[in-house]
Amino acid sequence: MTIQIEQLEFETIIGILKEEREFPQKVLIDLEIEYEYKDEFLDYSKIVEFVTFFVQKNKFELVEVAVNETCQMLGDTFSEISQVTMKIIKPDIIKNAKVGVKTTKKF
């Protein structure tokens, strides 16, 4: 089974530039989560809540670290997950582009 979460949007401290460390900025997160569906489902609302809290709490400097650590914590927290693909986009940091990173982690 695959859960799709697209365009999860919230503000957080993320980045290495001085203004990124002082003021929250908007991020957009896409998740694709593979898991073995048996008799119980994986609650996507709990995943949204977890990812939002984890990213905001950690105030990551590098987006690369944010996606790696968030994927790992998802796998550690939700044992049903077999694979996570995650993308974090910073839509407002460059005027004419949306930039970010994407990774896939298998468990």
Tell me what the structure shows.
The chain contains three helices and four strands. It is of the alpha+beta class and 107 residues long. It has one domain: GTP Cyclohydrolase I, domain 2, CATH 3.30.1130. Strands 1-2-3-4 form a four-stranded antiparallel β-sheet, covered by helices on one side. It is elongated and about 45 Å long. The mean pLDDT is 96.
Rg (CA only): 14 Å
CA(first)-CA(last) distance: 15 Å
What is the CATH fold-level name? GTP Cyclohydrolase I, domain 2
CATH architecture assignment name: 2-Layer Sandwich
Structural class: alpha+beta
How much of the residues is beta strand, in percent? 35-45%
Largest sheet: 4 strands, antiparallel
Order of helices and strands: EHEHHEE
Contiguous low-pLDDT stretches (5 residues minimum) are none
Shape: elongated
CATH superfamily placement: GTP cyclohydrolase I, C-terminal domain/NADPH-dependent 7-cyano-7-deazaguanine reductase, N-terminal domain
Q: Total helix count?
A: 3
Number of domains: 1
Mean pLDDT, all residues: 96
Text of the CATH class? Alpha Beta
Assembly form of the protein:
single chain
Give helix % range. Answer: 25-40%
Features:
elongated, four-stranded antiparallel sheet, 107 residues, GTP Cyclohydrolase I, domain 2
Topology:
Layout: E1 2-12, H1 18-22, E2 25-35, H2 44-58, H3 63-77, E3 81-94, E4 97-106
Antiparallel strand pairs: 1-2, 2-3, 3-4
Q: Summarize this, please?
A:
By secondary structure, this protein is an alpha+beta fold. Helices cover 33% and strands 43% of the residues. The chain has a single domain (2-106), classed as GTP cyclohydrolase I, C-terminal domain/NADPH-dependent 7-cyano-7-deazaguanine reductase, N-terminal domain (GTP Cyclohydrolase I, domain 2, 2-Layer Sandwich).
